[in-house]
Amino acid sequence: RRERQRFVDKNGRCNVQHGNLGGESSRYLSDFFTTLVDLKWRWNLLIFLLTYTVAWLVMASMWWGIAYLRGDLHQAHGDTYSPCVANVYNFPSAFLFFIETEATIGYGHRYITERCPEGIVLFLFQSLLGSVVDAFLIGCMFIKMSQPKKRAETLMFSRAAVISQRDAKLCLMFRVGNLRNSHMVSAQIRCKLIKSRQTPEGEFLPLDQCELDVGFGTGADQLFLVSPLTICHEINSESPFFCLSQRSLRNEQFEIVVILEGIVETTGMTCQARTSYTEDEVLWGHRFLPVMSLEDGFFRVDYSQFHATFEVPTPPYSVKE
């Protein structure tokens, strides 16, 4: 079949765009910090550079303006004349004084004199404004760098899901794995079935979401993810796949969204990895190849067989049949 549009890509990206917000777009400005963190890196760096550049130029212009209004730019700075800022004769020297003050470099050549109250007030304002800008922008960059999105890329899902018998029950199964040695604390997995349907009243529900039980009642959805695990959904009378058979699978249109959540052991931040399986990626009558082997004193995981499956005898009928 031709690949159809997904609700969630294999890499976990959601194919949903919000449009025609109208006046609701002002909500982004009310939470400007989160909006800034959510932007792409290139926009963050651009805002970071522009904010500091504009702030530096404005503050340097204010120092130059004070020197200009007092006439310090045209006077000789000596024992007979006390300027607002010593050794500030033009805009470059005013800019250098601002940078020395803001970065606490303090070369000692330029300094504020005690006969300039407006300079003292501007110095206090500059210190407060610099602290606020540094806290806002550096905090934003730190949070963006520490986001656990990259950690989700080391969590693997099998390319396909399989349907076969386990313990004499027909089950839908897929495999998850963790490529890092660091653990995912309190790892939990959830599954959603995305399928359009029509209610008995005639209402059409596009992309209706239905929960797939992967062991919520038994605690099997709480994972100890130190080695690849096969997640199992038992197809029974309460399952949305109760009437699904090998033949009807060819004509179905659905998408299974898998959500794996956990706490990154090294940072303590919550991480979420997502993937999805369409009806074309569900293999009837298949089982995953084993990837664990026992060696001298440890267990080895062969990730080259992580996605591999093999056929097993499986009834082509639905559980209802």
Topology:
Blueprint: H1 26-30, H2 32-38, H3 41-70, H4 91-102, H5 117-145, H6 149-152, E1 155-157, E2 161-166, E3 169-178, E4 184-198, E5 204-212, E6 222-223, E7 229-234, H7 246-249, E8 255-264, E9 270-278, E10 282-284, E11 286-288, E12 292-295, E13 298-301, E14 309-311
Parallel strand pairs: 2-10
Antiparallel strand pairs: 1-3, 2-3, 3-7, 4-5, 4-6, 4-8, 8-9, 11-14, 12-13
Helix pairs in contact: 2-5, 3-4, 3-5
3D structure, described in words:
The chain is an alpha+beta fold. It has 2 domains: 24-146, Helix Hairpins (Orthogonal Bundle); 150-311, Immunoglobulin-like, CATH 2.60.40.1400. It has helices spanning 26-30, 32-38, 41-70, 91-102, 117-145, 149-152, 246-249; strands at 155-157, 161-166, 169-178, 184-198, 204-212, 222-223, 229-234, 255-264, 270-278, 282-284, 286-288, 292-295, 298-301, 309-311. Strands 1, 2, 3, 7 and 10 form a 5-stranded mixed beta sheet that branches.
